[in-house]
Amino acid sequence: MGSPHPNVSDHLVLGLETSCDETAAAVVRGDGAVLAEALVSQIDDHAPYGGVVPEIAARAHLEHADVLVAEAMRRAGVGFGDLTAVAATGGPGLIGGVIVGTMTAKAIAIAHGLPYLAVNHLEGHALSPRLTAPDVAPVAFPYLLLLVSGGHCQILSVRGVGDYRRLGATIDDALGEAFDKTAKLLGLGFPGGPAVQNAATTGDAKRFALPRPLAGRAGCDFSFSGLKTAVRQTLEKQAQPVDDQTKHDIAASFQAAAVATVLDRTRNGWAMATADGAHHTALVCAGGVAANTALRVGLNGLAADLGCPLVVPETRLCTDNAQMIAWAAIERLARDPNDHDSLGFKPRPRWPLDPNAAPMAFAGAKA
Ligand code: KG4
Ligand code: ZN
């Protein structure tokens, strides 16, 4: 029995991810086998500041990139001569980190005579649900992707490798950012998503009626800054100091409002994607916020309603990682073996996936 993977190929790619607060290197094979990944998260470095500090991130990437490449290669049990290409996130992201990853990958490419690919971080997320084990058939094109992380919040119709139509995006904050800012306001710690989710488990989601921005409106754009402001105002109206139960009730109310908004927007996104009769095979959710249980439960219900499967990659593939970067390179090479980038590639802090989509302040950049 061969692999059910459509991409089965002899490729063996080293991928690097350095665009935000995770430094990671992975070795992935053309049939979807992940031979190794080495990853260092900078959560502890940024926690005192309640958010990612670009300069601290850049220094950490510089410190860890080489070590993690060596570690991933060692664990994979391969040498540079065995690789068929080296890939690194070329943007969008925090420029210091993107430069570190790009320079590291280019140096390896030059030293070992390997093709180099600059991968769009968003393309990594978009294709991540197709990185399945060799014996598991991946989701087929086209599918609808809800990409929700700390830096990105958009809905894309993923038509094929290199063919992405952005249907909607946030006009202000990303969803993960809204979770992080809410956690900061409530003093719950960093990263905020898991902290808010945790607090919400013992909170009353009905105690505070928070706004569901853009819900009921046409299109599938997002807006979360009004919801964040409502959280702040609700908090200020409480007797000070605010007791823990009230904080948990606010967390639960925030989460309920955020999820309801996302479901409303995603339902519209599905209608937009399929309006011209284009059959979409699945609803896919990726990005760090895909780890949120309330969101998963809601999306499950929505997918059942729409009559389509819901695909959520494992959490380690949803959050930033190097496997998806190596995999995106493999998908590109499977489509066109000569799809290499020039060593003159300049890192791109902003790099929208869909060049035809109207520019939006936060659609292709990490805030
Ligand atoms: O994809 P990711 O690791 O990095 C970015 O590209 O941003 O996503 C991190 C984001 C953070 O905002 C974090 O708070 C959020 O994902 N997150 C969650 C949960 N786990 C992580 N948000 C809500 N609920 C969670 N369980
Ligand atoms: Zn990301």
Describe what this molecule looks like in 3D.
With 367 residues, the protein is α/β, with parallel strands linked by helices. The chain has 2 domains: 12-131 and 316-335, ATPase, nucleotide binding domain (Nucleotidyltransferase, domain 5, 2-Layer Sandwich); 143-312, 2-Layer Sandwich (Nucleotidyltransferase, domain 5). Helices cover 40% and strands 17% of the residues. The chain contains 11 helices and 10 strands. It has helices at 43-46, 54-76, 95-112, 121-127, 175-186, 192-200, 225-237, 244-274, 293-306, 315-318, 323-335, and strands at residues 12-17, 22-29, 34-41, 85-91, 116-120, 143-148, 153-160, 163-169, 283-286, 310-311. It has a 5-stranded mixed beta sheet, with helices on both faces. Strands 8-7-6-9-10 form a 5-stranded mixed beta sheet, with helices on both faces. Strand 9, helix 9 (293-306) and strand 10 form a beta-alpha-beta unit. Helix 5 packs across helix 6 and helix 8 (244-274) runs parallel beside helix 9. It is globular, with a radius of gyration of 20 Å. The termini are far apart. The model is unreliable at 363-367 (pLDDT under 50). The structure holds 5'-O-[(R)-(carboxyoxy)(hydroxy)phosphoryl]adenosine and zinc ion. The site of 5'-O-[(R)-(carboxyoxy)(hydroxy)phosphoryl]adenosine has 19 residues, from helix 5 and helix 6.
